[in-house]
Amino acid sequence: MSAIRKGVQRELFQTDDERLLAILHVIRVDGRKKKRPTFFCLAGKVVICHF
Questions:
Q1: Do the domain assignments include residue 15?
Q2: Which pLDDT value is given to residue 41?
Q3: Quick one: pLDDT at residue 15?
Q4: Is residue 51 part of a domain?
Q5: How far is CA 20 from CA 3, 25, 28, 32, 35, in A?
Q6: Average pLDDT for residues 4-14, to the nearest whole number?
Q7: 17, 20, 21: which is closest to 45 by C-alpha?
């Protein structure tokens, strides 16, 4: 799962302030014989405050 997470982070988010926060493997129940991998991704912007 970490290889998938690193690949998605590298390919989708090129800037330093956007991060992939969570990734979830989803199992679809749709009656298809051939299963395709499906992932749900949560992304956010990293904000660092210095006081």
A1: yes
A2: 82
A3: 65
A4: no
A5: 13, 14, 22, 29, 25
A6: 75
A7: 17
Q: Which two tokens stand for residue 2?
A: 């970490």
Tokens of 34: 């051939």
Considering the domain boundaries, does residue 33 fall inside one? yes
Q: Given a cut of 70, is residue 30 above it in pLDDT? A: yes
Q: How many domains does the chain have?
A: 1
- What is the maximum alpha-carbon separation in the chain? 56
pTM, two decimals, is: 0.51
Give me the chain's average pLDDT, please. 77
| 18, 46 contact by CB (below 8 A) | yes
Q: Which domain covers residue 9, as residue numbers?
A: 2-45
